[in-house]
Amino acid sequence: MNKLKHLFMCLLAIGTVRHNLPCFVSVHLIPVSTPKNGMSSKSRKRIMPDPVTEPPVTDPVYEALLYCNIPSVAERSMEGHAPHHFKLVSVHVFIRHGDRYPLYVIPKTKRPEIDCTLVANRKPYHPKLEAFVSHMSKGSGASFESPLNSLPLYPNHPLCEMGELTQTGVVQHLQNGQLLRDIYLKKHKLLPNDWSADQLYLETTGKSRTLQSGLALLYGFLPDFDWKKIYFRHQPSALFCSGSCYCPVRNQYLEKEQRRQYLLRLKNSQLEKTYGEMAKIVDVPTKQLRAANPIDSMLCHFCHNVSFPCTRNGCVDMEHFKVIKTHQIEDERERREKKLYLGYSVLGAHPILNQTIGRMQRATEGRKEELFALYSAHDVTLSPVLSALGLSEARFPRFAARLIFELWQDREKPSEHSVRILYNGVDVTFHTSFCQDHHKRSPKPMCPLENLVRFVKRDMFVALGGSGTNYYDACHREEF
């Protein structure tokens, strides 16, 4: 039995990473302590370093398991937590699509055999899976903004197509939707039972995996919803910048960031050696193998417990995977230090953040439209938003990651509104750059909405230097 299969048999048997299990020794996964309350270490996972659950040193296999986000036990989440005198006014949800088939193929190897049909007796499973398929099959006449109306509403290929959402990805978002339903609808009554179409705002990029992820979450949130009330808008840009996408300085930051990535890779002799070994195994030039982005395919093998590919020259193995994954982690660490990505993120995230505070401000005026907003997006959407908010320690968005903005009203002072920011169920409000000092000056458990508005309208551009205090000036300044 190979190491990867051994690892996943252990993982599936226990549902999570536990302490001192010998089955993990063979792949050198560093064990973590079992929480006293019986909750799994995965469900207690924080996006910031936590000495209780964090391995003593960065372990690439541990990080990869978190990235896979394999559905197991229910997550412990902090969404919807507020003192009783606070009323929930609106919720804005940003998600990364769920688990998908690779976008790249390792040259001269067999594609991993993953079934993208939805099957009730195959793990991972969700109680609403069959009902989801049935409901999606009735939505062919639904109204979606073009070109979304040409996309399938759920995955349905016996051998997954490139980039296609898997059953794991559907289940991940059915779980997300049900979790949000229990909190926002059953507990806080965010939407009335007779909710109307204008109380939802739904937007997705033009990929089947994002549309299907959005529909899975929506079905978990509003089971058996009325198709006549559903309208997904199409967003051509992964940054969700709508009509504000032209930003020359943002592109300059991106070019400098890509140059930084390239130089870091050149310095990593172990990485280059690993690429060379893998290139010999598949009998292609090293440059060609690297261009094929092998980690994308290897993560699919890893997350689905499929053996890494072999040829007559040998096998790609776990050690190769660990070297490339470790480099990814090092790249993320240097990215935070060099700040080039922060510049890209501020300019990349501003349009969608500006849209969000606009909806919040309308809600504070008593408007009842767009009380629940859902953006179904990509890692390259969420990552800039996290960075722009100052959440530099946040992990790279895993499959089915969720970032949520909650707007609250103080019933005792109805003119006062506050926000909470949550990432994968963890309250990170006071880690953001616009509110990290607020709790030191105020006993209030949330951040004033005006802090977020001031940050988006003006303060977030301070990180860029220069004299620009608005989006247009920051995008077009010549001294960069």
From TrEMBL:
It is found in: Golgi apparatus membrane. SUPFAM superfamilies: Phosphoglycerate mutase-like. GO terms for molecular function: phosphatase activity. CDD domains: HP_HAP_like. The keyword Nucleotide-binding does not apply. Residues 1-19 form the signal peptide. It catalyses: 3-O-[beta-D-GlcA-(1->3)-beta-D-Gal-(1->3)-beta-D-Gal-(1->4)-beta-D-2-O-P-Xyl]-L-seryl-[protein] + H2O = 3-O-(beta-D-GlcA-(1->3)-beta-D-Gal-(1->3)-beta-D-Gal-(1->4)-beta-D-Xyl)-L-seryl-[protein] + phosphate. GO terms for cellular component: Golgi apparatus; Golgi membrane. It is a single-pass type II membrane protein. GO terms for biological process: chondroitin sulfate proteoglycan biosynthetic process. The keyword Hydrolase applies. Keywords: Glycoprotein, Golgi apparatus, Hydrolase, Membrane, Signal, Signal-anchor, Transmembrane, Transmembrane helix. PANTHER family: 2-PHOSPHOXYLOSE PHOSPHATASE 1 (PTHR11567:SF110), ACID PHOSPHATASE-RELATED (PTHR11567). Responsible for the 2-O-dephosphorylation of xylose in the glycosaminoglycan-protein linkage region of proteoglycans thereby regulating the amount of mature glycosaminoglycan (GAG) chains. Sulfated glycosaminoglycans (GAGs), including heparan sulfate and chondroitin sulfate, are synthesized on the so-called common GAG-protein linkage region (GlcUAbeta1-3Galbeta1-3Galbeta1-4Xylbeta1-O-Ser) of core proteins, which is formed by the stepwise addition of monosaccharide residues by the respective specific glycosyltransferases. Belongs to the histidine acid phosphatase family. Interacts with B3GAT3; the interaction increases the 2-phosphoxylose phosphatase activity of PXYLP1 during completion of linkage region formation in a B3GAT3-mediated manner. This is 2-phosphoxylose phosphatase 1.
